Amino acid sequence: MRWGRRSADVAAAADLPRTAIELRDVAHDYGERAVLRDLTLSLAEHRVGVVGANGSGKSTFARLLNGLVVPTAGTVRVDGLDTRTQLREVRRRVGFVFQDPDAQIVHPTVAEDAEFGLTNLGIAPEERARRVDEVLTRYGLAGHRDHPAHLLSGGQKQLLAIAGVLVMEPRRVVFDEPTTLLDLTNTRRIARVIDELEQDVVVVTHHLDLLAGFDRVLVFEDGRVAADGAPAETVRWYVDRMS
Amino acid sequence: MKSRDLAYIALFAAIIAALGLIPPVPVPGIPVPITAQTLGVMLAGSVLGARRGALAVLTFLAVVATGVPLLSGGRGGLAVFAGPSAGYLYGWTLAAFVIGVLTQLTWRRFNLAWAMVANLVGGVGVIYALGIPFTSVYGDVSLSAAATGALSFIPGDVVKAGIASVVAVGVHKAYPVIELPRRRPAAG
Amino acid sequence: MTLSLYVPVASPVHRTPAGLKLGLLAALAVALFLVDGLAVVGGTLAAVLLLGLGAARLPWRSVLAQVRPVWPWLVLLFAFHLVVTDWHTGTVVVLRLLALVAAAAVVTATTRVTELVAVVEWLARPLTVFGVRPARIGLVIAMTLRFVPLVAERAQRIRDAQAARGAERFRFRSLVPLLVQVLRLADTLGEALDARGADAPVPVRRGRAGASTS
């Protein structure tokens, strides 16, 4: 109930096209070091959580989903599109939010940064302005339009990073530890933002309470999926295993 | 050029700017206090290599030219490119490029000695080779007079070349980002 | 952009297109070196000041602030010419440089950073033949402005950490951890640029946005 979804949101969510991501026989290594091995699974759930110890491969897994990392073996398909050959279409469908918003904000001021992805998509100026207004208002940043992004608080920076991705209207958003650098208040704020999203999401996190209302949780261990299922069981399994 | 290269270029331009914020450091035995900004120029070449290093410096200068006062001492705008010492600024880009070339040539056996060679040739030699004639032509003075005027700055720049070399070797060990083009096995 | 030497007032000089102002500045730089007459050079300086302080309504402080760094050089040059040539040559040399520096200062103070970046992009257009993408020049300049305060802050953090462990003054050795941090950040930034579509080919104009919302 804390971050509980309104039924209206759920109804709205049902109208959006869902995405399905298929991984077949995926393996990935960085030179000598294997980080992921024989991964075959499909993600079609609305909200998927990913947990695991540091170095378990979950961050690389997240990067596979929008083609930031192309696997050394096997294939990743988003709605049938291969991340190896149809990268651009894949990236349009799957947005990515990084752990450190400072590495994601590229423009000096808030509005300029929110507009960045839209310019890359080749969207006309009036439409860009409309969408930027909308997204900045939604995330409480409208009053900071022309502020230097550098002067935002940590939570506001993460909101801007999310806004910069959502403005591109992806169908699924991958979050790579979006709350790791934030304090408790801001963690709750970002959790609520994620909960209210109509888009499908994949959230990689160490904050297990983020995953309470999720449809499915994957636990990574040594580059493999060690547990997979509803959050209640998988999270408990993971906590037992870690303690 | 990949997105990552753009990121390196922009962040190094930012490093050169940030080094300009460090107040000049007086060094015993050297007549003028040394500023850290040209250190950034040397590091751009030795850490990023020729192409990206030169582009980082060029980007920094472009930002200064558009009127952002990031040159050490809070200078900026087009005026600094019109003064008699502007030749040194123009030399920075070539300096980073030359340092980068020398660093890449010695990358497989990179050590303090090679770093020193690169930074002295590129970071001191090239900069003065451009700056002195520029002042001479611009200010209508003889070459030797322009060179005499520059003399007091050279010890500081040699010290900076030393610092840049130590730092470059440190970064080479900890996080090397120069990638050499793949060569045929015979040449490797 | 917050940090700039631009002086926001409404004037005909401010409204003149940035490209034209830069072109005139370049032409002035060439022309000034073709003349030797004291009257011509002095007149040019007077005209530049009239333009800047009069027509462009710039406060004299803003022009002076930009000219000030050049002073020591000008004094040296004048002294040199007094000794080696004569005061007439010295005066011409100094006035000529002063005129050029002042003109550059006027252009900087009357032109927004974004306008100048647009000129840089325009000038780079012929380079598309070599695969240069002008829009990326603007992007790299924007990223530099974005990251200057961040790099300065991280440098400060490293200095604080060293101070906490007893180091008293700035140690150039601390540049190694700073550079490694910044390079790591750059790696992620590169990924973020890709994820946000910066690696897309020259954008194709689409009339309507993607049809992802129904």
Structural class of chain A: alpha/beta
Number of helices of chain C: 9
Task: Give the CATH H-level superfamily of one domain in chain A.
Answer: P-loop containing nucleotide triphosphate hydrolases
Tell me, briefly, the overall form of chain A: globular
Poorly predicted ranges of chain C: 203-214
Task: Round the mean pLDDT of chain A to the nearest integer and report it.
Answer: 90
Straight-line N-to-C gap of chain A: 27 Å
SSE string of chain A, helices as H and strands as E? HEEEHEEHEHHHEHEEEH
Shape designation of chain C: extended
Mean of pLDDT of chain C: 84
In the CATH scheme, what's the topology name of one domain in chain A?
A: Rossmann fold
- Measured by DSSP, the beta-strand proportion of chain A falls in 25-35%
Count up the domains of chain C: 2
Rg of Cα set of chain A: 18 Å
Unreliable parts of chain A: 1-13
* Series of H and E elements of chain C: HHHHHHHHH
- Under the CATH scheme, the architecture of one domain in chain A is 3-Layer(aba) Sandwich
* Main beta sheet of chain A: 6 strands, mixed
Question: What is the tally of beta strands of chain C?
Answer: 0
Notes on the structure:
The complex is a heterotrimer of chains A (243), B (188) and C (214). The relative contact order of chain A is 0.18. Chain A has a domain at 10-101 and 172-242: P-loop containing nucleotide triphosphate hydrolases (Rossmann fold, 3-Layer(aba) Sandwich). Chain A is α/β, with parallel strands linked by helices and 243 residues long. In chain A, helix 7 links the parallel strand 7 and strand 8 (200-204). Chain A has eight helices and ten strands. Chain B contains seven helices and no strands. Chain B has helices at 3-19, 37-48, 50-65, 86-105, 112-139, 143-150, 154-174. In chain B, helix 1 (3-19) packs across helix 3 (50-65) and helix 2 runs parallel beside helix 4. Chain C has helices spanning 12-15, 18-32, 38-55, 60-67, 71-84, 87-110, 113-123, 134-164, 175-195. In chain C, helix 2 runs antiparallel to helix 6 and helix 5 (71-84) runs antiparallel to helix 6. The chains are: A alpha/beta (243), B mainly alpha (188), C mainly alpha (214). Chains in contact: A-C, B-C. At the B-C interface, helix 1, helix 2, helix 3 and helix 7 of B face helix 5, helix 6, helix 7, helix 8 and helix 9 of C.
